[in-house]
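hiii, so i know i said id send this last week but things got crazy w the move. better late than never?? heres the sequnce for the chain we talked about at the cafe, plus the structure i predicted for it. fair warning i was half asleep when i ran it
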Amino acid sequence: MRTPAPPAPAPDPQVRRWIRRQLETAPPRTPSLVITVWGDAIAPHGGAVMLAGLIALLAPFGINERLVRTSVFRLAREGWLKATPVGRESLYRLTRDGARRFEQAYQRIYAPPAEGWDDTWELVLADGSTPAHRRALMQELGWEGFGMLAPGVCARPATGASAVARIATALRMARHIVVVRARDDATLGGHTLADVAPRAWDLAGLAAHYRRFLLRFGSVIDRFRLAGQTAHDPLQALVVRTLLIHAYRRVLLRDPRLPATLLPLDWPGAAAYALCRDFYRLTHRAAERHLLATLQDASGTLPPASAAFHHRFGGLG
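okay and structure toks below
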């Protein structure tokens, strides 16, 4: 005789009030939240879901069916998603280009900050292309942590593999850029790249965003810590995780992830990363239960989470 599954923990009233207050005072824009949900929750499970399940998943955020459909149609029109009829319903999956863009953005969210730096810089000089192409290039490079030193000139500390070749190929800009690796030499006179780093990135503004993020989420995450490893309501775990990653994504994608030697001593980005890591490790099992009970693909269920999911934030344990 099969042993019945234990009942799910009861929702926490304080967490419920926190969620309600957040959705009233800072409601997320539906298209942006759909992107967060797809990258954080759906992509690890194959990247394809029936639209009806997505509508149900987003209902606790106060988002109605019309807004979900409009946002998904827009993402499909912009090349992120592709629709496939399944009976009278629709299955939406990531396009190849959509998957590339999700992977590019979300690798930065979950990957631990790079340790160590050998003082080498990566510089990109764009010339000979149209202003529209240069703007697109600068935007993509900005997402990869490049700062603009001058019109058409971007730089970042060279930590990890370069993304320039991939970006230039995708934008068909490879023949219009010069890419250089260089190191500072203070003996040559003038400013070093390390000296002008604050000009290329608004570190003061970014630090303020991080501090607001920590203030916003610190108290609710303390409630989950009090409950321990297992006593979490699955719906609350998924909703808070989604709001957390949504807010963190919006701050992090402005962050060049500079080496510690280029940052102020009281840099709050490390604390924000630790907060997300700890909450993810604490609640991912409960959040996944709600996700798998709500969403389905064409087969009627979602595949298990990918190995990459379990390596987020240095490993979920």
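btw The mean pLDDT is 89. thought thatd interest u
miss u guys!!
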